Design the sequence.
C-alpha cells in the first residue's frame, strides 16, 4: 500500500488525483450553498472522456451552477470535485481554463460586436475578450478558420461578429470554446433564443461533434429534450439542486424521471435519435 509513503516522494501516488485517467469530471457529495440556500445538494457525478452528457432541468434547478463547478470557476461548499485530475478549490484555475471550453450567455455578452469573427475565436486562446495584440500567429488564424469551417460558418470569418444572426453567433461561440483544443467542452443552453431552423442546424452541428471521436468530453445544458443532439450518450436530471436521475440517456430519460424533474406529468417519446416531451 502507499499509505506510509510521503506524498510527492518517488513512488508515491500523486495526492488527490483520480485513479482513472479517463475521468474528466468526478464529484462526490458536492454541495454549493449561497446565502443559506442550497443551489446544489449532494451531487455525485462522473464524466468520462468519450461521454457526451446532457444536463436537464427547469429554470433555477442548478444547471449553470453545476457547469460553473465543472469549469473550475466555482468551488464546492461541501464534498470533493475533480476536473481533469485537478481538485477544484486546490488548484490554479488559470491552468485549467485553457483545458476547458466554456460557452455561456454571460461570456457571450462580453464579445465585442465590432470584432472580426475569426478574432473572436482566436482570442479564446488567451482567455481574453477583445483585441489582444496587433498581429496573430498564422497557425492561430488557420485553426480558427478550420473550426469555423467545421461549424459551417467558414465564410463568415472576416465579418464583424455583431452583424451575424443569433444562430451564427452561437456557432462562433462554440468555435471559440474549441479554440484551445480543450479536453472538456461545456455548453450552457446553446440553443436558447434560436428559431426552429437555427435550433435544428445547431443540433446537427452538435451531433457531428458528439460523433467525432477526437472531440472533447461534452456537457450540454438545456431544458428541452428536443435539443438533445444525436450522439449524446448520458443525461443528468436536476431539480432544486438535487439529482433526480442520471445515467445512459435511454435509462435516465423516462416519463417518470422527467415528470419529477419538471414537476408536472409528462410523456416522453424517442423518435430515432431525437426526443420529444409533452404534458401527459
Ligand atoms: N450567488 C447566488 N446567491 C443566491 N442564489 C443564487 C446565486 N446564484 C444563483 N442562485 C440561485 O440558485 C438557483 C440555481 O441557479 P442556476 O444554477 O443558475 O440554475 P439554472 O441554470 O438551472 O437555471 C437559482 O434559484 C438562482 O436564483
Ligand atoms: Mg442556467
Sequence:
Amino acid at each position: 500500500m502507499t499509505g506510509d509513503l510521503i506524498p510527492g516522494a518517488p513512488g508515491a501516488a500523486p495526492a488527490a488525483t483520480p485513479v482513472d485517467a479517463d475521468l474528466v469530471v468526478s464529484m462526490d457529495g458536492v454541495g454549493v450553498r449561497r446565502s443559506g440556500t442550497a443551489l446544489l445538494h449532494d451531487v455525485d457525478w462522473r464524466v468520462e472522456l468519450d461521454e457526451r452528457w446532457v444536463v436537464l432541468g427547469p429554470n433555477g434547478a442548478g444547471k449553470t451552477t453545476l457547469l460553473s463547478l465543472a469549469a473550475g470557476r466555482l468551488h464546492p461548499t461541501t464534498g470533493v470535485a475533480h476536473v481533469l485530475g485537478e481538485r477544484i478549490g486546490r488548484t490554479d484555475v488559470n491552468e485549467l481554463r485553457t483545458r476547458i471550453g466554456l460557452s455561456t450567455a454571460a461570456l457571450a455578452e462580453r464579445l465585442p460586436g465590432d470584432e472580426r469573427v475569426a478574432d473572436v475565436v482566436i482570442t479564446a486562446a488567451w482567455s481574453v475578450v477583445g483585441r489582444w495584440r496587433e498581429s496573430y500567429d498564422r497557425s492561430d488564424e488557420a485553426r480558427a478558420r478550420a473550426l469555423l469551417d467545421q461549424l459551417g460558418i467558414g465564410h463568415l470569418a472576416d465579418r464583424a461578429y455583431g452583424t451575424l444572426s443569433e444562430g451564427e453567433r452561437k456557432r462562433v461561440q462554440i468555435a471559440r470554446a474549441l479554440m484551445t483544443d480543450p479536453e472538456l467542452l461545456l455548453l450552457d443552453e446553446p440553443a436558447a433564443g434560436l428559431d426552429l431552423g437555427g435550433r435544428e442546424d445547431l443540433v446537427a452541428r452538435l451531433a457531428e461533434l458528439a460523433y467525432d471521436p477526437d472531440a472533447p468530453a461534452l456537457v450540454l445544458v438545456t431544458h428541452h429534450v428536443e435539443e438533445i443532439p444525436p450522439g449524446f450518450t448520458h443525461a443528468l436530471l436536476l431539480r432544486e439542486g438535487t439529482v433526480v436521475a442520471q445515467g445512459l440517456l435511454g435509462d435516465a430519460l423516462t416519463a417518470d424521471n422527467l415528470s419529477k424533474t419538471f414537476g408536472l406529468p409528462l410523456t416522453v417519446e424517442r423518435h430515432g435519435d431525437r426526443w420529444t416531451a409533452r404534458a401527459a
